[in-house]
């Protein structure tokens, strides 16, 4: 009887050792996985349009439509997030362009280049405006503007084009940020105009290192 008790006790001790080693192996594997993600996986930034205000958007339709002009004042707040655990991202200057109905009407805005630390979110304001600026709309584009003007809501696309580079990599990666904005023409009698926070689309080069 004593023999079986001794054997059982030894078996119980061995199972405890197995459990301890299993836990150690799991922790080590977890650390390795984290390190692989941090150092070997490159995630592109994400972008969000947090706020936007349209104070003026007036079209002087031309004949032909491509001779039209537009007067506008737009302010937008964008956030760019670096989701990488370890790697920072550097950006060249980010020129800003605005389009209506697929037609660009402003390219005057620019966000300065900057170093984007890992796991950080950078927020910046963009303010653009102009009076009687050329907009080469098509006839259907003019019709669409008039239809949206009736509702006071305009669909405008905000786009940023730049080149980015991950820390520790030599590859320069073209990057495009596209934010579709539904802008409510601000009413001067109202203190604030609601804006629906919008996720932007990120387009990056499909090449090694990007």
UniProtKB/TrEMBL annotation:
GO biological process: defense response to other organism
Keyword field: Membrane, Transmembrane, Transmembrane helix
Principal location class: membrane
GO CC, one annotated term: plasma membrane
Keyword Transmembrane: yes
Membrane topology: Single-pass membrane protein
Residues passing through the membrane, by range: 20-42
InterPro entries: LEA_2 (IPR004864), NDR1-like (IPR044839)
Localization: Membrane
Record-annotated Late embryogenesis abundant protein LEA-2 subgroup domain positions: 77-166
Protein name (Swiss-Prot/TrEMBL): Late embryogenesis abundant protein LEA-2 subgroup domain-containing protein
Naturally occurring in which organism (per UniProt): Eleusine coracana subsp. coracana
Lineage: Eukaryota, Viridiplantae, Streptophyta, Embryophyta, Tracheophyta
Gene: gb10341
């Amino acid at each position: 009887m004593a023999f079986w008790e001794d054997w059982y006790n030894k078996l119980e001790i061995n199972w405890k050792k197995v459990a301890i080693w299993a836990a150690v192996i799991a922790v080590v594997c977890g650390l390795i996985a984290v390190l692989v993600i941090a150092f070997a996986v490159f995630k592109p930034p994400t972008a969000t349009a947090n706020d936007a205000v349209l104070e003026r958007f007036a079209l002087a339709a031309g004949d032909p439509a491509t001779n039209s002009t537009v007067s506008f004042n737009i302010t937008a707040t964008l956030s760019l997030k670096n989701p990488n655990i370890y790697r920072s991202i550097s950006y060249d200057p980010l020129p800003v362009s605005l389009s209506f109905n697929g037609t660009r009407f402003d390219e005057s805005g620019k966000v300065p280049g900057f170093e984007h630390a890992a796991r950080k979110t950078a927020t910046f304001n963009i303010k653009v405006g102009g009076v009687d600026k050329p907009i080469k709309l098509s006839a259907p584009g003019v019709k669409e503007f008039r239809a949206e003007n009736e509702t006071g809501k305009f669909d405008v696309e905000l786009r940023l084009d730049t080149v980015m580079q991950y820390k520790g990599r030599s590859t320069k990666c073209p990057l495009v940020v596209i934010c579709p904005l539904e802008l409510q023409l601000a009413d001067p009698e109202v203190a604030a105009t609601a804006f629906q926070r919008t996720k932007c689309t990120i387009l990056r080069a499909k090449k090694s290192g990007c």
